[in-house]
Amino acid sequence: MQRIVGFFGDVGREMRKVSWPKRKELTNYTITVITTVVFFSIFFAVIDLGISKLIRLILE
């Protein structure tokens, strides 16, 4: 039990050392991630659609 308490005490001390991003930085990072995910989702959907049509064209 002593080791568990010590572990969580260490975690608390390390968390106080973390440099947390400011609100503006976090907003910018979030927008960047969402934009990237949307872009790649659309990109791979278009690629998938193109490959599907190509395979259908070859098999017909």
Describe, in plain words, how this protein is organized in 3D.
The structure is a single chain. Helix content is 88%, strand content 0%. The model has no long low-confidence stretch (mean pLDDT 96). The longest helix is centred in the C-terminal third of the chain and has 37 residues, at 23-59. The protein contains 2 helices and no strands. The chain has 60 residues and is mainly α. It is elongated.
Element-level helix/strand string: HH
- For the record, give the distance between the C-alpha atoms at the N and C termini, rounded to a whole number: 69 Å
Task: Tell me how many strands there are.
Answer: 0
Oligomer: single chain
Radius of gyration: 24 Å
Major sheet: none
Number of helical elements: 2
Shape: elongated
Structural class: mainly alpha
Short description:
By secondary structure, the chain is mainly alpha-helical.
Which helices and strands, and how do they pair?
Elements: H1 2-17, H2 23-59
What labels would you give this structure?
60 residues; mainly alpha; 88% helix
